[in-house]
Amino acid sequence: MVCGKGSRTRRHTPLQALSLLLLIALAAQAARALRPMPTFDATNLREPADLGVPWLVHAGDDPAYANPDFNDSQWTLFDPHSYLNSVFPHSHPEVVWYRLRVKVSPTDTGLALREKSISRAYEIYVNGERFIASGQVVTYAPYTLASRIRRRIPDRMIASGSLLIAMRVHISEAEWGSQAPGFYYTNLTLGQQNALYRDDWLAIIGENAVFLLSRLFVIGVGFVALVLYTTQRRQPEYLWIFAAGVEALAESPVPAIAMFRDVPAIWELPGDLVRLTIPFILVSMYFAFLHQRMGWRWRTLLVLTGVLLSLGSMQGLFFMAPPVLQILGVLPMAILFSVVIPIVLAMHLYRGNREAGILLIPLTLFSLYIYAEVALGTLFQFPGSRSFALRGLNLIDRFPAGPFVVSLSDVAGFLSTLALAVIILLRFSTMSRRQARLDTELAAAHEVQKVLVPEHRSTIPGFTIESVYQPAQQVGGDFFQILPAGEGGMVIVVGDVAGKGLPAAMLVSVLVGAISGLSEYTQDPAELLVGLNERLVGRSGDGFSTALAAHIAADGRVTIANAGHLSPYLDGRELELPGALPLGVVAGVRYQTSHFRMAPGSRLTFYSDGVIEAQNQKGELFGFERGLELSTQPAAAIVEAAVKFGQQDDITVVAIQRAEAIASAA
To answer: What average pLDDT does range 128-154 have in this prediction?
Structure first.
């Protein structure tokens, strides 16, 4: 070494260097010893406070870390307002311990500690005693983390004036990839037991009100849709709405329980599996509203999307996927409901489908939510924008609205269910107007049918005629006509159109008009039935009508032909008539006639099948035997008996009795 003038060379011996290093180490240790240990002063605590002061943190696991006398001077100071990633930037330890000293007033009894969402597995010690725990740290057994666990601190601990809180926290790989792994300053709160109890209930209601209302709403609308589907089988969208309600019901029990206590995370598995069905149910519902068929490609895509969604829900419970695979797992679902379905709805709205527009409104809001989640989640991956991204995520996922905490996702879900309810109400209103018009038309048809049906008692010299017509609805499908014939005789046609209501009544009007027209040209029963059959073929669709025509001469001679109708009763016995096809089945049918004579005082009674097919609450039919026994009774008495037994169909009874005095004089 070259020195200036008058100088000399100075060398440090190895012993001197070692002494220098020792002095530096002792100085550093002294500095750490003099470093003020983190302490939370709760001696003047007036209301619950989060333990948001700096804590000591250390990776690794040793039961001694819970001991109040353990020397933690080598531990790292950690501000829980920041993120644990800053303390462990290059490693992700499974178990992390935290320690904090709390100064309390010895007379301040009634203090309690409240935990929320630290981790899926943790233990909290106070003065070395295990105080609160959830899950199993080693071997790792995760629990849910949505509930608030509150426990009062024993008075004997308060009397010491000092508390040492130690936390043993398991941080999984999934949690290390979250916004704030491990302990965050809002996870632990100290306060009076009563105040914490009140705050917990207010928070449970405020944080979950929108979620619970949304779930209850979709379940309720789903069961309403099921009722509608039972009466409107041509509306499959109602069945899919019901399926969405069932899915929400099946998925809800564990989240509802987890609001009040942490439960094993494996309990979430059934809900994760139920999520398999979400894409298929929702897209099928939208397609049903749009009257659009779903091909096998769509079905395959939806099944794959459901599998990825379910696996994404299980992530962190059974396995941990790389970030790229995590994004790919939710990407199909995000694209489906933020791009594809909104475009499909917009196209149908452009074509004039009003219901597509109603469904598009909440789906647009949900799309915006997905876009914001993706953008903010991407920004969170960069340290420089992490704080901004976290504020944005809290804004869309935990927006404070008075006493409530609102998620944009829950709002979109609630509005989607509301859109379904609006559509149901609009349809109900439309159906009500249609029903009102139909009731008016039915009333008019009823008045027309009253004109078509003969009076209760018709007058033909030499005969007493009774007739009773009792439709099952406002209008019916039974008909009969009693028309005078030459030389004091009459023509009777009794029939029953298949079905009930307005369609049957319209065919009745056709047949009654045809009977009046045909009777002007022929009074032969077989020819009448042939003419009615030709008029009905091709006009009744898949329907048909039974009928029986008879010509009764003034001297009691009867000619009768049957087209599939019930045989009449003569003086309490059933007449045997040859069978034939009903009217309207096939053209070119010919009908056979039978002949007999009504003696003076004889009674000929015609039934429609509504008498025989009356059914009581036990499922018993009125039957042919009861019909035979009552056949000599007045027509009104027969109808009353059948109605009281249990009317199921239109009922018609026509009774013709030949007068004895006139018959004797003849």
So the answer is: 93
Q: Which of 405, 427, 448 is the last residue of a domain?
A: 448
Q: Which residues of 62-96 are buried (b: 16+ CB within 10 A; e: fewer)?
A: eeebbbbebebeebeebebeebbbebbeeebbbbb
Same-domain pairing of 430 and 531? no
If asked whether residues 651 and 563 sit together in one domain, one would say yes
Least confident range of 14-28, 100-114, 392-406:
14-28
Task: List, in order, residues 6 or more apart from 600 with CB less than 8 Å away.
Answer: 556, 658, 659, 660, 663, 664
- The domain in which residue 53 lies consists of 35-193
Residue 415, in any domain of the structure: yes
Residues with Cβ within 8 Å of residue 647, at least 6 apart in sequence: 470, 472, 610, 614
Predicted confidence (pLDDT) per residue in 158-204, tens digit = 999 999 999 999 998 878 877 789 999 999 999 999 999 999 999 88
Question: Is residue 533 domain-resident?
Answer: yes
Among 472, 479, 478, 474, smallest CA distance to 438 is for 474
Tens digits of residue pLDDT in 69-93: 999 999 999 999 988 988 998 889 9
- 341 plus 472 within the same structural domain: no
> Quick one: angle between helices 341-350 and 278-289, nearest 10?
10
pLDDT digits (tens, 9 = 90+) for 57-72: 999 999 999 999 999 9
pTM equals: 0.66
> 508-515: which pairs have CB atoms within 8 A and are 24 or more residues apart?
508/449, 508/452, 508/476, 508/477, 508/478, 508/479, 509/448, 509/449, 509/452, 510/535, 510/536, 510/539, 511/479, 511/535, 511/536, 511/545, 511/547, 511/583, 512/452, 512/479, 512/481, 515/481, 515/483
Q: What is the pLDDT of residues 221-269, one digit of tens each?
A: 999 999 999 988 889 999 999 999 999 999 989 999 999 999 998 898 8
Instruction: Indicate whether 345 and 382 sit together in one domain.
Output: yes
Whether the ω angle into residue 139 lies within 30 degrees of 0, i.e. cis, is yes
Q: Please check whether residues 39 and 188 belong to one and the same domain.
A: yes
> What is the count of structural domains for the chain?
3
Task: Give the closest residue to 329 by CA, choosing from 345, 350, 311, 343.
Answer: 311
- Which of 448, 463, 496 delimits the end of a domain? 448
Which of 12-26, 121-135, 358-372, 398-412 has the weakest average pLDDT? 12-26
